[in-house]
Structures are given as structure tokens and as C-alpha cells.
Specification:
The structure holds 2 protein chains of 2 kinds.
Chain A (H helix, E strand, L loop, with lengths): L11 H16 L12 E6 L5 H12 L3 E5 L13 H11 L2 E6 L4 H8 L4 E6 L5 H15 L5 E6 L6 H10 L5 E6 L8 H9 L5 E4 L2 H4 L5 E4 L10 H8 L6 H4 L7 E3 L20 H22 L14
Helix pairs in contact in A: 1-5, 1-11, 2-11, 3-4, 5-6, 5-11
Chain B lengths: L8 E9 L3 H7 L8 E10 L3 E9 L8 H6 L4 E6 L2 E6 L6 E3 L20 E6 L4 E4 L13
Antiparallel strand pairs in B: 1-3, 1-4, 2-3, 4-5, 6-7, 7-8
The chains are: A alpha/beta, B mainly beta.
Chain lengths: 317, 145
């Protein structure tokens, strides 16, 4: 049984197939609109989420399937003390595939060990959020036409931001990738990621706290939110939260074809005055998140023998 | 000089750092074996000054010694058959460690899930880095050597 726990569970070739399928769905959604008829996606969300849960549900509905699940631990049997292992055994009797979000790191792995259906990690604490990374990769691939030979600026909370860490892991598999890490001293990228990943593979990177200085060099600027829940003390959070605000003036320094990405939700780090700038692609990114989740659901259900994918370029089934 | 008689089949774990034999006794789950176990503490050693020794009389298949590589790769493992040393095992780092060390990350699923095994995976053999299978937190606890 194939599951998705981390973006690195997919080889570069498998990832390319997934991105191609997502693009095929984008071009011809009707062709895939009934492929999951009679199939059910369970969304097991032990902590609140708007975008991720709704995009999974939208993805399954777009494929003609049905959805069931819960959106907080309080409304599940976890409130009665049921373990993840027991819950997934039961859900395996009700659904064909499931997406799980849990505040504890590694919860999705525990679920996958006991599941009889494919399990997708929809976020496990500060650990992994693979479908966000797939969303980011599809956005870059669709709008830049490639995943290699890019200079990517990562800005904001690089210490606690799991989306940034996952994106780095995923992108270093492509040639010609370099990074510019833009953060205050307190939110710098963890040293083990630099030593064990970037230095180990000789990936070029630069660290700075000045966004303006590096703007003209970037192909992509990936902004992140400083997350209040990661700080132990309010004072530190307040000091950090508005450290970077991307506005029109800073965008004047950027290239015409630079993309501004953000995993959302945005707070203050990108001024709303940029929303109409064609380079600001964060809402498009959310749309790509639905396409890539559709492709993922199809890939895992096909692998489990529950559906048959249409032939590439052939007639709908 | 204290004399402990030889064993017909089993293991002699020699050159254990003095004081560590009881920890190893527990980590190898020797308390669960129904066989003769002798623990010699603070034996004189030319090389180490003082050392501990553990003798276990059991089938050579009965013990998983991989964990010793993690605990202390300087321990000498003599395999005994018919009262003779038939092999000196070279200790290597185990690829996985189960239920010996614990993940200390309070955000890890192992902190709440009932009866979940504690599993650590060797992710960097050169630097001897073990990470929790679930949350990937690096094990930073005390090793024996």
C-alpha cells in the first residue's frame, strides 16, 4: 500500500508524473470529473485547518467522489482517548483513502502502519506537510516551466517554517538550484539543515537579513508568516512579526518575471497593495493546491487498484 | 582472584566500561532470558584499569547484539561453542534501535500513542546520527562510551 508521508517519498520521476497529471486535470477537468464516483475520502483533522482540509475536500468532489470526516479532535473519538492506530483501523472500513492532520509529529506514519487504505499526511505538527510542498512545486513548474536552474529567496521564519524546510529538501534534487535565506538572526535556518543538507550536497546559498539587497537576483521569492504559536513569549513574537513587509516599493527592485509565493495565511508580511501585481501568485498557488491533491488522490487510488487512470491523451474512462 | 567457570555455548562480553554492565544487562533484555548470566564488575584490566564482563550461557541465536554497537563499539564479543571461542564479533552500528532509547520531543506522537514502539533509525553512519522514526528528532542522549 502506497502512502504519502513526506515529499521525498516520491522519486523525481514519480513527482514529474504527478505534476503532469495535475496539469492534465487543470487543462481538462471534465475528463476527470467522475473518475472517483463511489469512492470516499476521509479527512481526519485533529486540529483546525481551513485551506488544507477544504482543498482536499474540493479535490475529491472535483473527481466525483464523496467525503466524510471530522475537523477537530473534540468532535472525534480522540476526545475519548482513542489512539491514532485504532481510529485508522476503523476508518479503513469506511473510506477508500484518507488525509490526516494531527498536532503530534509522526502521527501520519503511525496511521500508515495500521491502515488498509492509502494515507496522506496533511500536516503533522511542525514536522511535514508534503501536499503544501507538492503545491509549491506545481506552482513553480507551471509558472516557470522548470524546477531546476532557479535562484529562490526564502524570507521570514526560516527556523520554524516547515514548508520552507520541505521545499528545500524537494528542490535540491534538481540541477542549478541556489537559495538566498532572508531572515532575522533569531529565525535563521537551522544549522543541521545547512550542514547535513546544503553543505553536504554543495548547494549554493547566501544568508542575509536585508531583503532589498537581494531582490534583483531572485527568480522566486517565497514569503512566510512568523507563526505566533511557535513562540514561547509574546514579546519575541511581537518583535519578529513585522520584520519583513513586502510592499510596492520593494517589488520595484524585483525582476519582471520574479514570482512571489506564500503558503498562506498571510498576515502582515505581504501588503495587500501587491495582490493585483501579476508576479504575486499566492492565490494561484492555492488553486494549484487543489489540482495537485486531485492528482495525488488519483495516483494513490490507482496504485491501490481502486480506480483506473485514463490513458495519457486517450479517452476518458 | 574471583573465578567464574567457563560456558559451553553463549557469549562473553568483555571490555565493558566499569559500571556499565547492569545497563547493558537491561538493554539486552537479559532479565527476560531463562539462562545463566554472570556479571563481573570492576575486574582488573591492563588496558582499561577496571572493566566489567558479562557471561551469558545461551544459544548463540538467542541474543540480538546489534544494540551493543550503539552502546559501545569497544566492547569485545566472544562467541563460545563447545567451551571454545569460535568467533570474535565486530560491532557495527545497528540500522534501527527498538525500545532502548526514547524520543524526548514532547511534540512526537510517541509521547501519547499507547504501546507505540520507540524506533530510532541510523540516518548518518559517519556521524553516528540516530533519528526518531516518527518525528526525526536527533537522539542526543548519553551514550556509554
Amino acid at each position: 500500500m502506497r502512502h504519502l508521508m513526506s515529499p521525498l517519498d516520491l522519486s523525481v520521476e514519480e513527482l514529474q508524473d504527478l505534476l503532469n497529471l495535475a496539469q492534465a486535470i487543470e487543462k481538462d477537468p471534465e475528463r476527470y470529473a467522475h473518475i472517483c464516483a463511489g469512492k470516499k475520502l476521509a479527512t481526519l483533522f485533529y486540529e483546525p485547518s481551513t485551506r488544507t482540509r477544504l482543498s482536499f475536500e474540493a479535490a475529491m468532489l472535483n473527481l466525483g467522489g464523496n467525503i466524510l470526516g471530522f475537523s477537530s479532535a473534540d468532535s472525534s473519538s480522540a476526545a475519548k482517548g482513542e489512539s491514532v492506530s485504532d481510529t485508522i483501523r476503523v476508518i479503513s472500513c469506511y473510506a477508500d483513502i484518507c488525509a490526516i492532520r494531527h498536532p503530534k509529529e509522526g502521527a501520519a506514519i503511525v496511521a500508515s502502519q495500521k491502515a488498509r487504505i492509502p494515507v496522506i499526511n496533511a500536516g503533522d505538527g511542525g514536522h511535514q506537510h508534503p501536499t503544501q510542498t507538492l503545491t509549491d512545486l506545481l506552482t513553480i513548474y507551471s509558472l516557470k516551466g522548470r524546477l531546476g536552474h532557479l535562484k529562490i529567496g526564502l524570507c521570514g521564519d526560516l527556523k520554524f517554517g516547515r514548508t520552507v524546510h520541505s521545499l528545500i529538501h524537494a528542490l535540491i534534487r534538481y540541477p542549478g538550484i541556489s537559495f538566498v535565506m532572508i531572515s532575522p538572526e533569531e529565525l535563521k535556518i537551522p544549522s543541521n539543515l545547512k550542514e547535513d543538507v546544503l553543505n553536504e550536497r554543495a548547494i549554493p546559498y547566501l544568508e542575509t537579513d536585508r531583503l532589498e539587497e537581494v531582490m534583483p537576483d531572485l527568480d522566486i521569492l517565497y514569503m512566510t508568516r512568523v507563526q505566533k504559536e511557535r513562540f514561547f513569549n509574546e514579546e519575541d513574537y511581537l518583535r519578529m512579526k513585522d520584520f519583513y513587509i513586502l510592499d510596492k516599493k520593494k517589488m520595484e527592485l524585483a525582476r519582471e518575471d520574479m514570482l512571489v509565493m506564500h503558503p498562506l495565511p498571510r498576515v502582515n508580511e505581504i501588503s495587500v497593495e501587491l495582490d493585483d501585481d501579476p508576479r504575486a501568485v499566492y492565490f494561484q498557488q492555492a488553486q494549484y493546491g487543489v489540482f495537485v491533491r486531485e492528482a495525488l488522490i488519483l495516483t494513490l487510488l490507482a496504485d491501490a487498484g481502486k480506480i483506473t487512470l485514463p490513458e495519457k491523451g486517450g479517452a476518458s474512462c | 582472584m574471583l573465578n567464574i567457570s567457563g560456558i559451553q555455548e553463549g557469549f562473553v562480553l568483555d571490555h565493558i566500561k566499569a559500571g556499565m554492565s547492569l545497563d547493558i544487562y537491561h538493554d539486552l533484555h537479559l532479565d527476560k532470558l531463562d539462562c545463566t548470566v554472570a556479571i563481573i564488575k570492576n575486574a582488573r584490566s591492563q588496558k582499561m584499569g577496571k572493566k566489567d564482563i558479562i557471561k551469558v550461557e545461551c544459544s548463540v541465536d538467542a541474543l540480538d547484539l546489534d544494540i551493543l554497537g550503539f552502546i559501545d563499539h569497544n566492547i569485545t564479543v566472544n562467541v563460545i561453542k563447545n567451551d571454545r571461542i569460535v568467533e570474535k564479533k565486530k560491532l557495527e552500528l545497528p540500522k534501527t534501535i527498538r525500545n532502548v532509547i526514547r524520543c524526548t520531543n514532547p511534540r512526537c506522537i510517541t509521547s501519547i500513542e499507547q504501546e507505540l514502539e520507540q524506533v530510532f533509525v541510523l540516518t548518518n553512519p559517519a556521524k553516528e546520527v540516530y533519528r526518531c522514526k516518527y518525528c526525526e528528532t536527533r537522539y542526543k542522549g548519553k551514550k556509554f562510551n
